[in-house]
User: Fold this.
Amino acid sequence: MPDALQSLIDQSLLRQTAEIYATGADRRDKALWQQVLAEDCVIEGPGFTSEGRENCLPSLDALGTMFRGTLHRVHQQTVTIDGDRATGETYCTADHLLKGEDAILVWAIRYQDEWRREEGLWRFTRRRLIVDWTETRPVKVGVVA
Assistant:
């Protein structure tokens, strides 16, 4: 397969990995995170570091404890691929529906990412969460008819 075509395929798969991670966060789905986190992954952010896949999964429980719901949207992503390893930055907006009030906490996020291809799948080996800014705003909760 020509290098340019393989690069496009890998870029698409790396983005899909970020999207599966976001979906897993919103659904609190540990099985989804297990698909995209390497056994030795490290997730770090303001005030926390989790090392190893099994130690990262409880973050999903914490989200459920802190918020009524979340919605993560993956935006642009830049990657550099070197064989079976890749590095890059993934932009995301994360809405957090607050408990006890009809408001959302919005985070403008950048993840500094590292991946490794394992058995044909790209998995995160490191995700560093950077919150560029936050905003809290009122929201109407419920189904609109």
User: Anything to note?
Assistant: Residues 2 and 123 are 23 Å apart (CA to CA). The longest strand covers residues 121-138. The domain at 3-138 is CATH 3.10.450.50 (Nuclear Transport Factor 2; Chain: A,). The two ends are 50 Å apart (CA to CA).
